[in-house]
């Protein structure tokens, strides 16, 4: 363990990112950072905290922790249609482990620089390992996506695949058996989620509402229904799965997809008149999109397997309720 002081720690590890944004007038080194924006631009702000023993444990490499801390914040910005810009990090550590910090910052900077984000400040303190990141992004005036705009008749889309991260956690907890290959594939989704930043910006013109899937599809789609004062029909037979998830029992993978969380995909609604143009414009984006349901007037979420309505009450709920206080990865 190192005997670095707080300011040496900041200088060596948290001030080494190159200056990559012209809108950062003053970064680290003063009491505040100073940034500038252009006219007709709004700022979206989000904050997430990851706590050792709650959100991650010894299974998770330090590099992955740095990556995921940035990814979960950028996923929130993506859900608003924002372009990521600035990051602030508050890190509390019981001691200075230079190897851990080296790997953690490598994962953090790698993803931040990919999305042209600059770390502009923060704080370091001693205590139980806790990581808090604030991300700020830019939006053209009046073009933000929210959870409140869904209308009856809108189609519900989700990006990517669902359930892999929850399945990875189940494998780690001994609740699901898997080969080393499958475990590795699942843990890649749990440890290194991909924030759908470009997709969020691409759907600003067409989507009526949007949310990122962090707490499970049912919970997060429920936020849209509540804020928009609508209901929905969800088509279970259309849920998108990765190849490794298709090897699981159907009920297992449905539970992971519906209730598991940590997918960090985007779930959004699109009116009928925009659906064709959206699907065409995003056909070569590299991100798969799946229509999984439709908004309607009847309150609540109803689930269908083909034409048969399915009661999902309690399915998967106890399993994940029991896991909520366990490390999420």
UniProtKB/TrEMBL annotation:
Organism placement in taxonomy: Bacteria, Pseudomonadati, Pseudomonadota, Gammaproteobacteria, Alteromonadales
Under which EC number(s) is this enzyme classified?
Answer: 2.7.4.16
**What is the originating organism of this protein?**
Aliidiomarina maris
For Mg(2+) 4, which residues are the binding ones? 31, 46, 76
UniProt binding sites for Mg(2+) 5: 215
The residues that hold ATP are 122-123, 147, 214
Q: What residues does Mg(2+) 1 bind to?
A: 47-48, 123
The miscellaneous comment for this protein is:
Reaction mechanism of ThiL seems to utilize a direct, inline transfer of the gamma-phosphate of ATP to TMP rather than a phosphorylated enzyme intermediate.
What protein name applies here?
Thiamine-monophosphate kinase
What CDD domains does the annotation carry?
ThiL (cd02194)
| A GO MF term | magnesium ion binding
């Amino acid at each position: 363990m190192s005997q670095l002081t707080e300011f040496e720690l900041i200088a060596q590890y948290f001030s080494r990112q190159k200056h990559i944004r012209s809108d950062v007038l003053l970064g680290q080194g003063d009491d505040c950072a100073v940034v500038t924006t252009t006219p007709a631009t709004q700022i979206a702000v989000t904050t997430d905290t990851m706590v050792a023993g709650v959100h991650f444990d010894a299974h998770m490499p330090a590099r992955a922790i740095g990556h995921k801390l940035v990814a979960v914040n950028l996923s929130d910005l993506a859900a608003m249609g924002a372009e990521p810009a600035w990051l602030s990090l508050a890190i509390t550590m019981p001691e200075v482990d230079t190897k851990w910090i080296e790997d953690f910052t490598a994962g953090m900077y790698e993803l931040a620089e990919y999305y042209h984000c600059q770390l502009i400040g923060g704080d370091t303190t001693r205590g139980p390992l806790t990581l808090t990141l604030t991300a700020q992004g830019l939006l053209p005036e009046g073009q933000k996506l929210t959870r409140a705009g869904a209308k009856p008749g809108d189609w519900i889309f989700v990006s990517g695949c669902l359930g892999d991260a929850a399945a990875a956690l189940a494998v780690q907890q001994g609740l699901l058996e898997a080969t080393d290959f499958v475990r590795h594939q699942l843990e890649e989704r749990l440890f290194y989620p991909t924030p759908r930043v470009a997709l969020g910006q691409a759907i600003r013109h067409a989507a009526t509402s949007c949310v990122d899937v962090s707490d499970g599809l049912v919970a997060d789609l429920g936020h849209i229904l509540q804020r928009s004062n609508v209901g929905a029909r969800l088509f279970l037979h259309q849920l998108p799965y990765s190849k490794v998830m298709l090897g699981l029992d159907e009920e297992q993978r449905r539970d992971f997809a519906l209730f598991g969380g940590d997918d960090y995909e985007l779930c959004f609604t699109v009116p009928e008149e925009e659906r064709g143009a959206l699907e065409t414009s995003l056909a070569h984006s590299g991100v798969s999109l799946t229509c999984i349901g439709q908004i309607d007037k009847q309150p609540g979420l109803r689930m269908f397997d083909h034409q048969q309505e399915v009661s999902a009450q309690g399915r998967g709920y106890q399993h994940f309720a029991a896991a909520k206080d366990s490390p999420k990865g």
